[in-house]
Design the sequence.
């Protein structure tokens, strides 16, 4: 039989994980639109073909982004935008 | 240089006020000048824990509104002359008590005291912000209950957005016998899960209930010794952790000392 401390510890870890990944309203839309703004300085991309995915585990957040059919902007374009 | 420490927890009833009072007394007993600030506006209890509720003439609201001078509102402890208390407003929240006005009071206190210890209200709203933004260091109190640790974890994550020099965890109300039987999470388990090192472990102690009824924090007891260790850790940065199960063997005690 599992000891109570072990059960409590597992429940706690589960609760903390679900607290950690709970996303506020419009989180995805806002994140996506801001990232698209930044990436547009570097890539030619259509927001509709842009995907962003989060995989959250105990102590790592993996953020995967995918731009379908995009291309890197010619060098000169984003250098001027940075300055 | 004065130290400004906030004692917080998120969840209510975990012992913030008892911890605040106890470390305040322990630090003041070493001769340092300590002032305790009750930031729990409207739901103040620090006065009752320290048995000074009948001595309050002015409170923090009177100071902020200019009705009295800061010194007039401070209450000196009878037993420990280097310990002072600034009572919180008795009635209710006032628009005058803003984060800025609270910070100003804490700053003024830090000029003439070695330690300003702030008893934070429960919850994570304005009162929390007011108390935490006035401090440089935080002590987060939790019990071994899942609900309490969860709230402590949230508070720890909120604290990371404040400019604090240090954040320490206090695990309160630990039953050594239950930990030994695997019925309660140990302070080590809790500290690993919330990724914060413990600076104090306080055993469950009936004396706290008994003494708090008459209005005094016990010191010749297990919990009293644990509070003294906590105070020493705060003063000197040492890492003495109270062993809640004194009957354990040397190896077990060594393990708990090393945090395993």
Sequence:
């Amino acid at each position: 039989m599992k000891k109570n401390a072990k059960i409590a510890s597992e429940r706690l870890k589960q609760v903390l994980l679900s607290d950690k990944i709970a996303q506020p309203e419009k989180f995805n839309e806002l994140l996506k639109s801001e990232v698209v703004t930044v990436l547009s300085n570097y890539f030619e991309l259509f927001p509709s073909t842009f995907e962003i995915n989060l995989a959250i585990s105990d102590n790592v957040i993996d953020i995967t982004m995918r731009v379908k059919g995009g291309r890197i902007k010619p060098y000169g374009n984003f250098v001027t935008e940075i300055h | 240089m004065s130290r400004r420490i906030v004692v917080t927890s998120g969840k209510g009833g975990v012992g913030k006020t008892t911890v605040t009072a106890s470390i305040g007394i322990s630090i003041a007993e070493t001769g340092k000048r300590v002032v305790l600030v009750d930031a729990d506006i409207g739901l103040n209890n620090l006065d009752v824990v320290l048995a000074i509720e009948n001595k309050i003439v002015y409170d923090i609201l009177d100071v902020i509104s200019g009705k009295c001078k800061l010194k007039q509102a401070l209450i000196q402890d009878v037993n420990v002359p280097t310990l002072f208390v600034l009572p919180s407003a008795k009635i209710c929240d006032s628009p005058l008590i803003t984060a800025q006005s609270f910070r100003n009071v804490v700053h003024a206190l830090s000029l003439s005291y070695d330690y300003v210890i702030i008893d934070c209200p429960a919850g994570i709203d304005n009162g929390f912000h007011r108390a935490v933004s006035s401090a440089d260091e935080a002590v987060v109190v939790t019990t071994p209950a899942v609900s309490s640790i969860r709230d402590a974890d949230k508070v720890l994550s909120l604290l990371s957005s404040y400019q604090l020099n240090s954040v320490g965890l206090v695990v309160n109300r630990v039953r050594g016998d239950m930990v030994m039987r695997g019925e309660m999470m140990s302070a080590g388990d809790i500290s690993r899960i919330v990724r914060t090192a413990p600076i104090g472990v306080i055993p469950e102690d009936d004396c706290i209930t008994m003494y708090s009824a008459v209005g005094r924090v016990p010191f010749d007891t297990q919990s009293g010794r644990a509070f003294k260790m906590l105070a020493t850790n705060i003063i000197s940065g040492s890492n003495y952790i109270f062993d809640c199960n004194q009957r354990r063997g040397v190896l077990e005690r060594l393990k708990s000392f090393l945090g395993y």
Remarks:
- Chain B touches chain A through 17 residues (CB under 8 Å).
- Chain B has a mean pLDDT of 89.
- The first strand of chain B starts at residue 3 and ends at 8.
- The longest helix of chain B spans residues 222-236.
